[in-house]
Amino acid sequence: MTASRMKIQNSPTIRRMPAYLHRLLEMQQEGRESVSSTELAEYMHIEPIVVRKDIALTGISGQRRVGYHVDELIRFIKNYLGWQNPVRAALIGAGALGTALLGYDDFAHYGLILDSVFDCDAKKIGTRIRGKEIFSMESMEERLKKSPVSLAIICVSSAAAQSVVDRLVNVGVRCIWNFANVSLRTPPGVIVQREVIAGGLAMLSVKMKNSRLHPGAEILE
Fold first, then answer.
1. Domain finish residue from 62, 81, 100
2. Three-state secondary structure along the chain?
3. Domain stops at, among 81, 106, 124
4. 160 lies in the same domain as 178
5. 83-138 residue pLDDT tens
6. Residue 214 lies in a domain
């Protein structure tokens, strides 16, 4: 019997959720108790109906003239995204991009804990970057067997990415966040999210080109 396939719907909604959460966490720090869909729409530069449809997917219900309770909406969004429980992750590759990710403080708000960092540069091994100790690639399997993680973040070269992922899969890692510019081959049951930085640049470039060709036209997201 072939394995069933599940398609994740509403990808634009999912991509907007962290932005909602970021603003809600700011409001929580400010002592705000409630927020309206109109306020979130103005923050996001989208229509209020889009915000209401997005938030409805989390299962929460707003109140007329009150909106949503900030603490409750944070909880519902985190639950919808699977961020209610912390996820332990390993970062593979402590180069420029990996170091930048280590400095991203919001991971803690999103339930992501960087547990181990690995690199092949002898000058980095045993040192600390952003407070995280750097371990050698040779020790990766041994360390991950003793201290398993649910997710691996790949920030190595395209040439090295596949062999690194093969090693990770062999020690039981089943979720890969891939920042290497290559399509990875993985067995069934392994989840891969590929981030193509050039994809964002391509979208921006097309918007810039269309803006030049059609001055004054509204460029939609």
1. 81
2. CCCCCCCCCCHHHHHHHHHHHHHHHHHHHHCCCEECHHHHHHHHCCCHHHHHHHHHCCCCCCECCCEEEHHHHHHHHHHHHCCCCCEEEEEECCCHHHHHHHCCHHHHCCCEEEEEEEECCCCCCCCEECCEEEEEHHHHHHHHHHCCCCEEEECCCHHHHHHHHHHHHHCCCCEEEECCCCCCCCCCCCEEEECCHHHHHHHHHHHHHHHHHCCCCCCCC
3. 81
4. yes
5. 988 999 999 999 999 999 999 988 988 889 999 999 999 999 999 999 999 999 99
6. no
Quote the number of domains for the chain: 2
pLDDT, tens only, 152-170: 999 999 999 999 999 999 9
* Position 166 in a domain: yes
Same domain, 55 and 139: no
